[in-house]
Design goal:
- The structure is a single chain.
- The protein has a single domain (2-72), classed as OB fold (Dihydrolipoamide Acetyltransferase, E2P), CATH 2.40.50.
- The chain contains no helices and five strands.
- It has strands at residues 2-12, 18-23, 28-32, 44-52, 64-72.
- Strands 1-2-3-5-4 form a five-stranded mixed beta barrel.
- The mean pLDDT is 93.
Length: 73
């Protein structure tokens, strides 16, 4: 099931580094398959994606959100 999350992009320095979406609701999502246009610190966005419960990561900063589409706000 797809969800849409509005928030701000952050670069987290855990392990080799990872990109995250900090939602307006305070939830932090680790981004999977994020396009390079989305990898911009401080970018306000709306991201549509699929929460992947079958994936574990080194960063383990929150649910993994597989990016399907996004829009800069």
């Amino acid at each position: 099931m797809s969800i849409t999350v509005k928030g701000v992009i952050e670069r987290k320095g855990l392990g080799p580094g990872t990109w995250a979406l900090v939602g307006d609701d305070g939830e932090t999502y680790e981004l999977k398959d994020a396009p390079s246009e989305l990898k911009k610190e401080g970018l306000k966005v709306s991201v549509k994606g699929l929460v992947r419960k079958d994936i574990m990561t080194f960063a383990m900063i929150g649910p993994v959100l597989e990016v399907q589409s996004f829009e800069a706000l």
